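Hello,

Our lab assistant flagged a job as stuck in the queue for most of the afternoon. It eventually completed. Since we weren't sure the result was trustworthy after the delay, we are filing this so someone can double-check. Below is the sequence as submitted and the structure that was eventually returned. Let us know if re-running is recommended.
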Amino acid sequence: CGNGRLFGLLKDKEIFYEGIDFSKKLVEFARDKHGDHFFVKNLLDLTDYPNNSFNVIFCVAALQHIPSDFFRKKVIEEFARILVKGGYLLMTNWNMLHQEKYKPYMRKYKLKRFFGGSQLDKGDVLFPWKARKGTVLRYYHAFSEEEIEDLLHGTKFKLIENYYVKKGGRVDKKSGFNLVTVAKCY
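-- returned structure --
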């Protein structure tokens, strides 16, 4: 959901759309711009949705904010529960492993983990984010293609493809801003 940008792209389609986000401010912004299609929810608690509720789930730059393999797997399993059989998961995550601007932060937390100065998991990083009240550290998890495959393994999802994009076009992993995952629910 975020600020509702995806809905802006899909609003002229004959679909039922419901956007969720953890941020009350982003949901309010999306509602002001696009109407009442948006709700404050936690990805770790989708129990309000019955089984087989959706044909497609778009998870845009959200899973990267969920800490620990355990909780990320739980989110994926919930997605499988609320998707119809044959439904699709379309997911994007920032390409933090291959973008130069993230490498210093990745190295910093790798060293901290090695020397016992961080309880974050492999691939986790606290990245400076400029907010209205100054810079804050936001949690991110840097996914590899293999890790996405492992995350989907043992669930009701079959990986269709992972690929990298930059400004709407497919590119190699060193150039891509985002890692895109397409998976089908069985």
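-- support follow-up --
The delay was a queue issue, not a problem with the job. The result is valid. The longest strand covers residues 83-94. The chain has a mean pLDDT of 93.
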